[in-house]
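Lab channel / #folding
Pinned by the channel admin:
"Please post every new chain as: sequence first, then the structure tokens as a reply. Keep commentary short and put observations after the output so the thread stays searchable."

First post following the new format, from NK:
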Amino acid sequence: KDLCARAFNNSGLIYFYSYNYYLAYSNFLRALDIANTIHDKAITPGICINIGNVYENYDDKENAIKQYKKAFDSAIATKDWNPMAIAFVSIMTTSVSSDHYITGVGDALHAYNKLGDNVKRLSPFTEHIYKGMESIYGHKDYAKAVTEFDMAAHKLDFKIASERDYGSAMYLKASAYEKA
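Reply from TO:
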């Protein structure tokens, strides 16, 4: 059954990259159902990230973030750092472009940071995004958020349109309109 879950996940990816999100979503759900049935925790974070990507393509940011959060929590539980980092970046970038902040990510990040130096660290860019979002939604400290976003912006290539748009979204969140 493990191979079946992986096969459905891979089929979902083929449909996803063929822009057939309905069939991608169906295959990802089937993969997740099988993984849950056989208690395969190793594949769960990747499947949840893929489901989140489908939601994001439908501009359903709330459900996308919920799936990324499931992936993040599952990856932390299994100490699988690559999908954990991907899920965390997905949560932050989706949160920047949505109207709300998802609670609980800070607790999971705190737990991750307690694991010590022998695990792969998040990129400085991602940590600055997180701290900026936390400053806005957790403390209403817009000046600190702008400082964190400034530090993250130094990691972006603003010659690339998508990164320029992302940078603008960060500053708009912090009400720093002159920088956006």
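NK: The chain has nine helices and no strands.
TO: also worth noting, The chain has a mean pLDDT of 78.
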